[in-house]
Specification:
about 240 residues, alpha/beta, 4-stranded antiparallel sheet, 10 strands
């Protein structure tokens, strides 16, 4: 199976925190949940993949290309969304979309319109008028509207109500069935159980496990039957 994303030996040191030889890979058309408690290194890893953070060492290949030498080409094929991204609060949704579409030759106004309607986003509304959940939906509209083959999403379901989260899970599954690869961090394990093929678990900057969701569940059955129970168990077990 074709590997869309390959990370090997990724290291980044900050005062008081470090990513330590982070390695994992994702195959085409799969959905990987990236999990760990706050401060474990999820966002630092995702930002390192996108070169927002410059790693100290390690390699990142996307679509078989080295990110250091083919960044512009790769970024045209990636969609990114983060719950922590801010836009100009007095600009409208439509103005943000009009600005963003200029960066992507493959941008589809039709796809954009479809997701605006699906997410009930009003293009005339100002960013400051949107709830946190609606802001997350705007990030996703921007990420999905240029035909991205890899979606990298940092806490995409954060701030969404249960119905909206369910809609998003369905969208993820449909995209994956069409060959889109999805890597997303989350602390909502129930969303993972509905859509993820693989789970990568990080703690204190180190990858402790990266395997299929079936393997994760099988490793701890029958005593632990949900991902939430397993995550809590792993956090406690590795502290002992």
């Amino acid at each position: 199976m074709e590997k869309v994303l390959e990370i090997n030996g990724l290291c980044k040191t900050y005062p008081g925190f470090a990513l330590k030889n982070v390695s994992f890979s994702i195959e085409k058309g799969s959905i990987m949940g990236f999990v760990g408690r706050n401060g474990a290194g999820k966002s630092t890893t995702l930002r390192s993949i996108l070169n927002f953070v410059h790693p100290d060492s390690g390699s990142i290949k996307i679509f078989g290309m080295d990110f250091k030498t083919a960044e512009d080409t790769i970024k045209q094929k990636i969609g990114y969304a983060s719950s922590g991204t801010d836009y100009y609060p007095r600009k409208t949704v439509g103005q943000i979309i009009a600005c963003t579409r200029n960066f992507y030759p493959t941008w589809s106004d039709e796809v954009c319109k479809t997701y605006l309607e699906k997410f009930n986003l009003d293009a005339s509304k100002k960013i400051c008028q949107l709830s946190e959940g609606m802001k997350v939906k705007l990030h996703l509209v921007l990420a999905l509207s240029h035909g991205a083959e890899l979606l990298i999403l940092d806490e995409p379901t954060s701030g969404l109500d249960p119905v909206s989260r369910e809609e998003l899970v369905i969208i993820f599954r449909k995209l994956a069935s069409k060959g889109v690869t999805i890597l997303f961090s989350t602390h909502i394990t129930s969303d993972l159980e509905k859509c993820a093929d693989h789970i990568t678990y990080i703690k204190k900057g180190e990858i402790l496990a990266s395997k299929t969701i079936e393997e994760f569940l099988a490793d701890y059955a029958p005593k632990l039957t949900t991902l939430e129970d397993i995550m809590v168990h792993l956090e406690v077990e590795t502290e002992e």
